[in-house]
């Protein structure tokens, strides 16, 4: 029988809680659900009012991985959903608005990925994002160097960027924007990626062509497209260990000398939140959003 837990008055079924999802550390599904439930105060604001895609890995990162974009079968009626535009026609997706919905979604065993716009206004981007992805032998330290250059370049346009780990190999930079479509935001991001390649030709590439990427950092600007999603702050990732896409201070980025220095697992997040708070909280303030030049 599937156990039921009550979360803020909602009955949420939980299954296979003893299953080990990350054999490298023995991290179980119960620990995954606990991580999301106890970190909800930080995670939920970054999910709220955004259509969510789930990268599911119910048998752990070494099992089958698959994206779920449409509302999954069996979704409780109290979970918020929204119709979102797609090139092939509108679709209905989950919007994680509260703790019961977050715990229900955690039971699916998933990464949380969101668009760079809110469901209330899908025609307007409210986020700018760069995904810095190193091609071996380049690594996270090289991503930090590129991130620092991008920070200064964005600041020159009046845009404040906030870094987080991808939870895998690279870094993400996010900024709050307003008054622009996803298309315009993508154009701006691409222009900066091209500029970064010109400024740091031995380190940066802005095209995804595989033959160009060894030893360089891809400044992936494409996730600003309206149809694209990016791993949300604080989401667990489907990696060998329970790594988290963790917000960083710029001091940590500047001081990084080894990729291991910026690898954070689920157990590390609560102490960081206690000491540093949500480093990406400024993204949630509409008054802090910048207009693109």
TrEMBL record:
InterPro entries: LigD_pol_dom, MtLigD_Pol-like, NHEJ_LigD
Official protein name in the record: ATP-dependent DNA ligase
Keyword Ligase: yes
Native organism taxonomy: Bacteria, Bacillati, Actinomycetota, Actinomycetes, Kitasatosporales
Keywords of this entry: Ligase
Residue spans crossing the bilayer: none
One GO MF term: ligase activity
DNA ligase D polymerase domain location: 28-279
NCBIfam families: ligD_pol
